[in-house]
């Protein structure tokens, strides 16, 4: 065997990073989303640009879905490691006996609302009685938010007429086909950008201050992949903190990575709304992603009263802050 000349060896080593000779080995990690890759989930889309997950040794993949139920089905089927889903979907699965854990509170603020035109006379939940109210779909969080608002006024869906209007669709409201429509904070932003006039907004969070979305895993994954999940949560907190600190950069990258990101100014508004929903008094003290067990318990109790889940849940048994990275006094 002939020795390699020193000059040739140095050249080989210098070329190694580009030939794959010494590349970092990354562990595949799959997030099951509730949506397509849209601006709202920018922290999960920009790793090719920012490398938050790669820095934790992860090759991040995003599997799109059409609602939280899709996201949860994907982890139950073993198609993903973690699901991005709303609390009610999580509670309903627990109610049916699924073995799950919530490990991160993505949006501790309730982002749902019910919107009506100025002059409608709808300024409080009780004013919704007898009205036609739009929802994105019968399986959406907008309907859940509407039910919570009605419940707070001693009303139920039987006291109103629910109309399916489709995603982010304010046209029926503007055309007088409905008296009010249930939406999200980002939906309202987009509606205003498309010509929605001055409106009254009933915020569901004023009635039920609770999380809008969580990261959820199977109990088996929680125990078997603890170290992997810790690395993911560390990267996700870094990515979320970056979006809070650098919203302009995030808006620019959303234009590159999100399917709805063509309008950078709109991206920035959506990102600012998502940043606001990512923080709470609890996360300011303990770090982004910290789960508020008491708030989630109150939500589960409310959903049971509404008949959305059948049996009482002891939420503390199904959530854990154990995998979160140490809090270093960030903006969370």
**Count of helices?**
13
Total beta strand runs: 10
| Widest sheet: strand ordering | 2-1-3-10-4
- What is CATH's topology name of the largest domain? D-Maltodextrin-Binding Protein, domain 2
User: How large a portion of the residues is in β-strands, by DSSP E?
Assistant: 15-25%
Looking at how many chains there are and whether they match, the oligomeric state comes to single chain
Cα Rg? 22 Å
Structural domain tally: 2
What pattern of helices and strands is seen along the backbone? Answer: HEHEHEHEEEHEHEHEEHHHHHH
Low-confidence blocks of residues: 1-22
Question: What is the terminal separation in angstroms?
Answer: 59 Å
Structural class: alpha/beta
Shape annotation: globular
CATH superfamily of the largest domain: Periplasmic binding protein-like II
The first-level CATH class name of the largest domain: Alpha Beta
Mean pLDDT: 91
Helix coverage percent of residues?
25-40%
